[in-house]
Amino acid sequence: MRYAVELGGERFSMESTQGLFSPERADAGTLAVLSVVTLEPEQRVLDLGCGCGLVGIYAARRCGAHNVWMTDIDSKAVEYARRNAQANGAEGVHISCGDAFEAVEASEFDWILTNPPYQSDFSVAKRFIEKGFNRLRLGGHMVMVTKRRDWYRNKLVSIFGGVRIEEIDGYFVFIAQKRGQRYANASVRAAGRKRR
Questions:
Q1: Residue 184: which CATH number?
Q2: Confidence band of 21 (pLDDT split at 50, 70, 90)
Q3: How far apart are CA 194 and CA 130, in angstroms?
Q4: What SS3 class is residue 170?
Q5: How many CA atoms lie within 13 A of 4 on its CB side?
Q6: pTM confidence score
Q7: How far apart are CA 136 and CA 99, in angstroms?
């Protein structure tokens, strides 16, 4: 099945199939993420859990395909992401199949964009946040979208030291910036030990 979506004045033609996330239209959460990011040429972007590839392909048009990495654990999603990248002029993006960061060797990302599986337990999101922090450059951003607020806010604050939250169409979009090289909660503990 195919659908079209217009983003930033450009049209994208996407192909998907049953069994993949949001196969018939661009997911509202995904569109919410793209509405809050400002991607610039030559920035490095990771589309984590890329599905059929809309986020990564949009990023490739803004930042250059060679600066974009896309990964998904589902081989069918990766197959469609490859097809869609080629069909939408984003040849040259790095697309891999595997379990999140295990499938990506690159680091020093300016942006990590993800719509994690938030209906299950928090183990996947916890891994995304903790490992994502380590893959960002200083000043880089992790942007996540979910329909749940408190756990994500608390976890992102504990790792990044702060988070901005935008509520868009029933979704919470979390924007966290890496401001130091160590997890915020580790820094807080270390500061507490020094005061004793």
A1: 3.40.50.150
A2: confident
A3: 25
A4: coil
A5: 4
A6: 0.91
A7: 18
Q: Could you report the per-residue pLDDT of 132-167, keeping only the tens digit for each? A: 999 999 999 999 999 999 999 999 999 999 999 999
Predicted pLDDT of residue 194: 44
Query: Token pair for residue 64?
Result: 């250059």
Burial 38-75 (b: 16+ CB within 10 A, else e): ebeeebbbbbbbbbbbbbbbbbbbbbbbebbbbbbebe
The C-alpha atoms of residue 65 and residue 37 are separated, in whole angstroms, by 17
Three-state DSSP at 146 gives strand
Q: What residues contact residue 5 under an 8 Å CB cut-off, 6+ apart?
A: 11, 12, 14, 25, 26, 31, 54
The domain tally of the chain equals: 1
Give, rounded to a whole angstrom, the gap between the first and last alpha carbons of the chain.
62
Residue range of the domain that includes 145 = 2-195
Question: How many residues are recorded in the chain?
Answer: 196
